[in-house]
Protein backbone atom coordinates (compact mmCIF):
# COMPACT_ATOMS: atom_id res chain seq x y z
CA UNK A 1 0.00 0.00 0.00
CA UNK A 2 1.38 3.37 -1.01
CA UNK A 3 0.34 6.26 1.22
CA UNK A 4 2.80 8.68 -0.37
CA UNK A 5 2.41 8.71 -4.11
CA UNK A 6 5.59 9.37 -6.03
CA UNK A 7 5.87 12.69 -7.79
CA UNK A 8 4.34 12.67 -11.22
CA UNK A 9 6.72 11.79 -13.99
CA UNK A 10 7.47 14.66 -16.36
CA UNK A 11 5.12 14.73 -19.31
CA UNK A 12 6.74 13.81 -22.62
CA UNK A 13 5.78 17.15 -24.19
CA UNK A 14 7.42 18.99 -21.30
CA UNK A 15 10.54 16.85 -21.64
CA UNK A 16 10.61 17.50 -25.39
CA UNK A 17 10.19 21.24 -24.86
CA UNK A 18 13.16 21.22 -22.46
CA UNK A 19 15.28 19.24 -24.91
CA UNK A 20 14.44 21.69 -27.70
CA UNK A 21 15.43 24.53 -25.36
CA UNK A 22 18.71 22.78 -24.57
CA UNK A 23 19.44 22.37 -28.28
CA UNK A 24 18.65 26.05 -28.86
CA UNK A 25 20.99 27.10 -26.05
CA UNK A 26 23.81 25.03 -27.55
CA UNK A 27 22.98 25.88 -31.16
CA UNK A 28 26.46 27.10 -32.09
CA UNK A 29 28.14 23.93 -30.84
CA UNK A 30 25.37 21.57 -31.89
CA UNK A 31 24.88 19.67 -35.10
CA UNK A 32 21.44 18.50 -33.99
CA UNK A 33 18.47 18.57 -36.34
CA UNK A 34 16.65 20.82 -33.87
CA UNK A 35 19.48 23.37 -33.77
CA UNK A 36 19.66 23.41 -37.56
CA UNK A 37 15.90 23.96 -37.84
CA UNK A 38 15.99 26.81 -35.33
CA UNK A 39 18.91 28.42 -37.18
CA UNK A 40 17.06 28.12 -40.50
CA UNK A 41 14.19 30.23 -39.20
CA UNK A 42 10.47 30.49 -39.55
CA UNK A 43 10.24 29.68 -43.27
CA UNK A 44 11.99 26.31 -42.87
CA UNK A 45 10.26 25.42 -39.61
CA UNK A 46 6.90 26.51 -41.02
CA UNK A 47 7.42 24.37 -44.11
CA UNK A 48 8.10 21.37 -41.86
CA UNK A 49 4.96 22.05 -39.80
CA UNK A 50 2.92 22.26 -43.02
CA UNK A 51 4.52 19.07 -44.38
CA UNK A 52 3.92 17.15 -41.15
CA UNK A 53 0.31 18.36 -40.92
CA UNK A 54 -0.34 17.08 -44.45
CA UNK A 55 1.29 13.74 -43.60
CA UNK A 56 -0.88 13.48 -40.48
CA UNK A 57 -4.05 14.01 -42.51
CA UNK A 58 -2.93 11.41 -45.07
CA UNK A 59 -2.15 8.92 -42.30
CA UNK A 60 -5.58 9.51 -40.74
CA UNK A 61 -7.17 7.91 -43.81
CA UNK A 62 -5.04 4.76 -43.62
CA UNK A 63 -7.04 1.78 -42.35
CA UNK A 64 -6.24 -0.79 -39.72
CA UNK A 65 -3.61 -1.14 -37.04
CA UNK A 66 -0.76 -0.11 -39.33
CA UNK A 67 -2.66 3.03 -40.32
CA UNK A 68 -3.30 3.85 -36.69
CA UNK A 69 0.38 3.34 -35.82
CA UNK A 70 1.43 5.55 -38.74
CA UNK A 71 -1.07 8.21 -37.67
CA UNK A 72 0.36 8.27 -34.13
CA UNK A 73 3.90 8.53 -35.55
CA UNK A 74 2.93 11.48 -37.76
CA UNK A 75 1.12 13.17 -34.85
CA UNK A 76 4.38 12.96 -32.92
CA UNK A 77 6.26 14.57 -35.81
CA UNK A 78 3.72 17.40 -36.02
CA UNK A 79 3.87 18.03 -32.28
CA UNK A 80 7.69 18.06 -32.34
CA UNK A 81 7.86 20.55 -35.22
CA UNK A 82 5.16 22.70 -33.61
CA UNK A 83 7.21 22.83 -30.40
CA UNK A 84 10.26 23.87 -32.43
CA UNK A 85 8.21 26.67 -34.01
CA UNK A 86 6.96 27.73 -30.58
CA UNK A 87 10.57 27.87 -29.36
CA UNK A 88 11.63 29.91 -32.38
CA UNK A 89 8.81 32.36 -31.62
CA UNK A 90 9.69 32.47 -27.91
CA UNK A 91 6.39 30.94 -26.79
CA UNK A 92 6.27 28.27 -24.10
CA UNK A 93 3.93 25.29 -24.18
CA UNK A 94 2.43 26.54 -20.89
CA UNK A 95 1.26 29.68 -22.71
CA UNK A 96 -0.59 27.60 -25.29
CA UNK A 97 -2.05 25.47 -22.50
CA UNK A 98 -3.25 28.66 -20.78
CA UNK A 99 -4.91 29.77 -24.01
CA UNK A 100 -6.65 26.40 -24.34
CA UNK A 101 -7.76 26.60 -20.70
CA UNK A 102 -9.15 30.08 -21.36
CA UNK A 103 -11.23 28.67 -24.21
CA UNK A 104 -12.51 25.75 -22.16
CA UNK A 105 -16.24 26.11 -21.74
CA UNK A 106 -16.51 28.75 -24.48
CA UNK A 107 -18.46 27.60 -27.50
CA UNK A 108 -16.57 27.44 -30.78
CA UNK A 109 -18.96 29.95 -32.34
CA UNK A 110 -18.45 32.44 -29.51
CA UNK A 111 -14.67 31.98 -29.64
CA UNK A 112 -14.59 32.56 -33.42
CA UNK A 113 -16.76 35.67 -33.08
CA UNK A 114 -14.36 36.96 -30.42
CA UNK A 115 -11.39 36.46 -32.76
CA UNK A 116 -13.19 38.20 -35.63
CA UNK A 117 -13.84 41.25 -33.44
CA UNK A 118 -10.15 41.42 -32.49
CA UNK A 119 -8.88 40.95 -36.05
CA UNK A 120 -7.17 37.58 -35.57
Automatic annotation (TrEMBL):
Main localization (coarse): cytoplasm
Classification via SUPFAM superfamilies: all-alpha NTP pyrophosphatases
UniProt entry tagged with the keyword ATP-binding: yes
One cellular component term from this protein's GO annotations in UniProt: cytoplasm
Pathway: Amino-acid biosynthesis; L-histidine biosynthesis; L-histidine from 5-phospho-alpha-D-ribose 1-diphosphate: step 2/9
Catalytic activity: 1-(5-phospho-beta-D-ribosyl)-ATP + H2O = 1-(5-phospho-beta-D-ribosyl)-5'-AMP + diphosphate + H(+)
Subcellular location: Cytoplasm
GO BP term, example: L-histidine biosynthetic process
Keywords, ordered alphabetically: Amino-acid biosynthesis, ATP-binding, Cytoplasm, Histidine biosynthesis, Hydrolase, Nucleotide-binding
InterPro entries from the UniProt entry: HisE, PRib-ATP_PPHydrolase-like
Record EC number: 3.6.1.31
Protein family (similarity comment): Belongs to the PRA-PH family.
Protein name, as recorded: Phosphoribosyl-ATP pyrophosphatase
Organism field: Botrimarina hoheduenensis
Higher taxonomy: Bacteria, Pseudomonadati, Planctomycetota, Planctomycetia, Pirellulales
Amino acid sequence: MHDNPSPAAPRPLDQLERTIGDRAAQAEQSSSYTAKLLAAGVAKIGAKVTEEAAELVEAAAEPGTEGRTHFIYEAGDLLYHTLVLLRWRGVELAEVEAELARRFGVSGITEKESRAKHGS
